[in-house]
Every structure is written in structure tokens, then in C-alpha cells.
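Memo subject: From amino acid sequence to C-alpha cells
Keywords: amino acid chain, backbone geometry, C-alpha cells, three-dimensional fold.
Body of memo: The sequence and its C-alpha cells, given next.
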Amino acid sequence: MRRSTLLVGSSALDDAEEAMSTALAELGPTLHTLPDGETGSRRNWIIHIVESLRGHPDLELGKDGSWTDYDDTPVFKIRRGHTLYGASLDFGHVAAFDASYPLFRRLRAANDLPDLAFQVGIPGDFDMALFVLGPTGAFLHRRPFTEATLREIHAIHERAGDDVVFQIEVPAELVFVARMPDRLQPLMAGLLGRGITRLAQASPAGARFGVHLCLGDMNHRALGRMRDLSPIVHLANALIDAWPPQRRLEHVHAPFAAAETPAPTSPAFYAPLGQLRLPHHVRFVAGLVHEDRSIDEQRQLLGLVEQLLGRPVGVATACGLGRREREPALATLRQAAALCHD
């Protein structure tokens, strides 16, 4: 195995063609999958989806917000006498796929990369419920968000089959685990990990998946922090233990940096990786690429990670590039390429 690169999702570039063309020029054969850059309104992850629900007939605002930080977000509630159904929710993933997939196929052929798959970012159903309805609402009313997410996964899979890798994106789960006392982290990881794998289980047989563990990146600020990588190890191990057969888990991406804060340099931070039970066929992607770390520092950290895991790993930023300015975002692509070609 050799090092590979992963683009987590969003890009700081202007449109899908520029985002994909630039990624192919910088990273080319090191990529297993290629997202469309989630440009425009999609560069801020699910904010555009949540905002689109302001006119939903079954929802009303419980608290308004303007997204300046994690405490300043709108929270909805289900209207009295109404029921929220998955059929009434449209997250826009299918429309985005239909717009970008033909362009992806053209660029893949032009770059002679026949094995490259199209990557579709899918926010976790619990995460969608949490950011729309708040913590209590998410636990009480997760089902319609699960139904809507699965409907869109099935629709995309019907169109492209195994030419697509669905990347499930789950910041809430990792942050919840990280905030628990150490002795309770494995229990919380098992509970939340099973929820993620249930989404995969209900997806089409043969569907391909990656999982993006995340600490949040709203306005390029993290929602959660970790003292070391124990929360990631607990959650990744829980995913592996519960992952359903006939659903291909191809990568697990782990954030080492936290938004604007680069990855720590202390070896103790990375020590828990020695307890990771990741099968050899599942790529581990180290989210350590950061414009505020020198390439030599990143080489040292990457060497430490590979020593702990006993194999080469993928490299990526901690989250998508949509919250960065253009030049820092391009700098991270060049850093990832350099690390991959060492």
C-alpha cells in the first residue's frame, strides 16, 4: 500500500469544474475518490439545508440564529398538531449529484483515471436532526431524517451504482464522545457508532462508504476538542465492530487538526492509535494537513502515525476547505501532494 490523499468535501474554489480540475491537477493519481467541491451555498456544509427549512409547513422556529458561532444557530420545532415525515424533506443531494456527475465523468476520462470514484458527502441522519431540532428533538424525531437521507442515498445509487462512494459525515458523534469522561467514552462510542452503521445497513447492498469523523468547522472554528485521539479510536472501533456485511467501508477519516488549530506535535496525543482495530482493507486517513504547519512537521507527525498503525495512511485536512480562503486552501493541496510523494 502507498499513501493516498482524500478531499473531505467542500472547496474554496468557485465552481465544481474548477474544484475538480484543480484537485486532479494537484493530486491526480493519489486520489481514490473525488468530490465535486460542494461549492456555492454548499461550501458551509448543511447551513443551506437548514435554512431551506424556514418555509417547511411542518416546522416552526423555536429559536432564530444567524450562524456566527455554534450558539447562534436557528433551532426548529415541529408545529403543534403536525407530523414530520421523511418524504417531506429534501436535502438536495440528488440534485447536486445530477448536476456534477456528468462533469466528473468527463474529467475522469480526460485525466485517464478509470478507477477514480465520485464521492458524495452525506451528513449523518442524527447530525441533520440535531442541527435542525436541537439535542432533545434529535433524539425524539430522528426517524424522518433517517428516511430522507436513505431515500437520497438509494436514488443516487440507482443512478451510478458502485461508481459512487458515500462519505457519511458525523461531527456530532465524535464531539459527544470527546466530551464524555474517559471511562464512559467507549460506551457512548458504541451507542453512536451503531446509529451510523444502521444508516449503512439500510442502504443498498453493494454500496460503498467512507466515514468522515469531524470536530466541526463552522466559520473555520471547531465545535469540539480532544486531549488525545482516544475518542477517535473508540468511535472508529465501534464502527468496525458493527459495520454491516455487503456494505463496503473503504476509509475512515480522522481529524487531528481542529479547524484553525493545527494538529498537536506531542507524541502522547497520538499514542491511542496503537489500539485502533481497523482492517487492512479500510484506509485510515490522517486529517493533519494544515497550512500553519511546516511540511517537515507534518512529515514527522505522519511518520509517527504510520509507525503506530504499522502501515501507510491517507492524508487530508481535518475538514473540508470551504471555510478557508483560496490561497491557504490551495496550499493544503500542495502539502498533501508532497506528503504523498515522499
The beta strands are 33-34, 59-63, 75-78, 117-123, 164-170, 208-213, 248-255, 283-287, 314-316.
